[in-house]
């Protein structure tokens, strides 16, 4: 299986996120992708390729022009107003406030376009997120070029980003960009399977009213876990997308005895929609020792996960998402890839 990787991911190195009432260095750090890449090479999974440039047009197929423009200038606007500290929002347009006006002040823009106070914009954010989109799109190129499976080692992750909102360490939704690119380049129907610990609220929101991109997610229950306000099992799609969305929320402490049957159900859902291609949002924060998650998967379960996904028999692009047990992240991610390879 070929891997696509860009070292520009290192340009995003946030020093500040708000956790437990404290500003801390981000769990989402450059070491994550570097350790996955090292394990890919150590275990000889396949060639590692640089991404090719695809421009912003495929990004704008998923994200609004205003949102893309905001991200492209946010750091410069922040520095002009406040200096070179991580840019974080301070308020949000909650119930009773207006949503139809984007403020001129950068503090207002950050608040308007953001989901949380844990996703800093830094000097290197724009470079990293445009590279991550190219990594995902180069994976699309590989699969459309005949590869049965490919791995886009994206960082920062993307599945919490919606059409015009960033958060959860995510800016551009790499998996959604890839899914839309598959559609634009001839796939009749695309499935996205999200196995990250946290619900892919951004991906769901982007495709919720569509039947041509179906979405299935296994994740921590939103009554207990971020992002809290999407991911319930009664969210099944709307309009043309009615029935094309499956959420399988699981409670704290879930191990393979619970997760495995949920994965079977998600894969059956995918198969039932007869997609031409599959995009997997791969987060390995389901691991038992992940510092910000509460599932109990072991190393060997990621091999079984890969085997189950491969059993669908679909051309598949794996897009990297979360996973914060840094010492173990490469083992678990590559176990999925090896399981897929058989």
Protein architecture, described:
Residues 28-338 form the Histone deacetylase domain. Pfam families: Hist_deacetyl (PF00850). GO terms for molecular function: histone deacetylase activity; hydrolase activity; metal ion binding. The longest helix is centred in the middle third of the chain and has 20 residues, at 125-144. This protein has one domain (2-56, 123-341): Histone deacetylase domain (Arginase, Chain A), CATH 3.40.800.20. By secondary structure, the protein is of the alpha/beta class. An 8-stranded parallel beta sheet has the order 4-1-5-10-9-6-7-8, sandwiched between helices. The model has no long low-confidence stretch (mean pLDDT 98). The protein has helices spanning 30-42, 57-60, 65-82, 106-113, 125-144, 174-184, 201-207, 256-272, 299-310, 329-341, and strands at 2-4, 17-19, 22-24, 48-49, 149-152, 190-194, 213-220, 245-250, 277-282, 316-320.
């Amino acid at each position: 299986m070929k891997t696509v990787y860009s070292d520009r991911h290192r340009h995003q190195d946030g020093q500040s996120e708000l956790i437990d009432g404290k500003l801390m260095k981000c769990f989402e750090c450059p070491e994550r992708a570097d350790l996955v890449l090292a394990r890919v090479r150590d275990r000889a999974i396949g060639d590692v390729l640089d991404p090719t440039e695809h421009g912003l047009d495929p990004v704008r197929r998923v994200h609004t022009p205003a949102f893309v423009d905001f991200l492209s200038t946010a750091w410069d606007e922040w520095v002009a107003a406040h200096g070179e500290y991580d840019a974080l929002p301070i308020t949000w347009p909650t119930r009773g406030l207006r949503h139809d006006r984007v403020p001129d002040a950068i503090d207002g823009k950050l608040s308007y376009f953001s989901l949380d106070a844990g996703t800093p914009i830094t000097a290197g954010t724009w470079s990293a997120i445009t590279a991550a989109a190219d990594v995902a799109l180069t994976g699309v190129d590989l699969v459309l070029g005949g590869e049965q499976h490919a791995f886009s080692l994206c960082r920062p992750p993307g599945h919490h980003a919606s059409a015009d909102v960033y958060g959860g360490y995510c800016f551009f939704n790499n998996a959604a960009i890839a899914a839309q690119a598959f559609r634009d380049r001839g796939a009749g129907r695309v499935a996205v399977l999200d196995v990250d610990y946290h619900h892919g609220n951004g991906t769901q929101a982007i495709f919720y009213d569509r039947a041509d991109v179906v979405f299935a997610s296994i994740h921590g229950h939103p009554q207990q876990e971020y992002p809290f306000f999407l991911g319930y099992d009664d969210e099944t799609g709307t309009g043309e997308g009615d029935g094309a969305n499956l959420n399988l929320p699981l409670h704290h402490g879930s191990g393979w005895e619970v997760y495995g049957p949920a994965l079977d159900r998600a894969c059956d859902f995918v198969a039932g929609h007869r997609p031409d291609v599959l995009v997997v949002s791969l987060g390995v924060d389901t691991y038992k020792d992940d510092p910000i998650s509460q599932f109990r998967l072991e190393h060997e379960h990621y091999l079984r996960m890969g085997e189950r996904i491969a059993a669908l028999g679909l051309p598949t692009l794996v897009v990297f998402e979360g996973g914060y047990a840094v010492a173990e992240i490469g083992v678990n991610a590559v176990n999925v890839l090896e399981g897929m390879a058989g």
